C-alpha cells in the first residue's frame, strides 16, 4: 500500500500560486506517496479555491472553559516549577491570556486518519501575521499527530528568523525558505531536522508569488530530470550574447577548475546568429574545449526568463536584462575593466580569483539546499 502524507492548509496560508504548486507536488510525488490535503470545514472559500487538490474537509469542536481562573490554576499546577533558562516560569506566561474571560479554549480536530499515514505537513504560524484561529488549529493538529504517533513537518511562510522560536520547536522538522531562518533555527533548535529549499521552490511560498515563479519551479523539475542533474550539482545561468563571444570564453575558462561540480545554462536567441551558425552552434563550436571540463550544460530560450529560477546564480560578462530581472538569485558579473562593487543581489567582480571564490561559495551554499519532494521522501522513510 502506498504511504500517505496529510497536508493541512488554511485560508490565511494559501494563494492561487501556492495551490497550483501543491498540485504539481502531488503529481510529482504520486509514484512514491499519496498527498492528501485536508482543510477545516469552516474554510468554505478555501475548499472551493483548492478544489483541484480534492481537499478533504474536517470538523472542528471547540470547548470553552466557564471559569478562566480555575483553568489557569489547573495549568499552573500541572506545569509546576518548570521554566525558561532566564528564570521565567512557564506558568507565568499563562497570565497574558488565560485570565481574560473566554480565552481558555480547547480546539479538537475531527480528522480521519487514513491507513498507512506517515506524516503531517502544515505551515508554522508566527505572531506577526497569523490569526488566532489559524494558531489554534496548528496547536491542535500537533496534538492530534502526537496522539496518532506520526511526525509533523512544518514549513516557513512568514519569517521564522525571529525571537519567537517556541512555535517552530513544536514540529519534528522545519522547511525554511530563507537562509536567515535556516541558519538561525539551526543554532536555536539544533536538535531539530531543518532544511532549506531551493530558491525556485522558496519563491512560491510568498504572498507576492506569480505564475513566473510557478513556471520557474516546473522548468526546474523538468530540466533537472531531462539532464539528470544530481542534487549536489550547482547550476549557473550564463546570459550569453554573440557580441561577447571572447568575454564568455574567458569567463568559462576561469571556471573550468570547478567544472565537475557545475551545470551551465546558456541563454540563446533566434536572432543571435553569426553567419550561418545559430547561437547554440557557435557556443558548442567555439567553447568545445572548455565545455568538456563541465559536468553538464544546456540551452534555454531567452524568451523564457523564468527558467533562470533553476540556477543557483547568474554569472554574466556584463550587466544585462537577466541580471536585472530576478532579485532573489545572486548575479555575479565578471568584467576586468570595471571597479568591483556589491549592491543587493548583484556583485561586480574584476579579478579571476575573486570570481572563482564567489562561485565556490555558490557551490558550497548549494549543498545546504534540499527540494521539498526529497524532504517528504525522508519523512516517510525514516518517520522520525
Describe the overall structure.
The chain has 384 residues and is of the alpha/beta class. Helix content is 35%, strand content 21%. It contains 14 helices and 15 strands. It has helices at residues 16-28, 44-49, 68-79, 90-93, 132-147, 179-188, 199-202, 211-226, 245-255, 279-286, 288-291, 321-325, 352-366, 372-382; strands spanning 3-8, 33-40, 56-64, 105-110, 117-123, 152-155, 173-176, 193-196, 234-238, 262-268, 296-301, 313-316, 331-334, 341-343, 346-349. It has an eight-stranded mixed β-sheet, sandwiched between helices. It is elongated and about 85 Å long.
Largest sheet: 8 strands, mixed
Task: Quickly count the helices.
Answer: 14
Mean pLDDT: 92
Instruction: Count the E strands.
Output: 15
The helix-and-strand class reads alpha/beta
Which oligomeric form is depicted? single chain
Report the span from N to C terminus. 20 Å
Poorly predicted runs: none
Shape: elongated
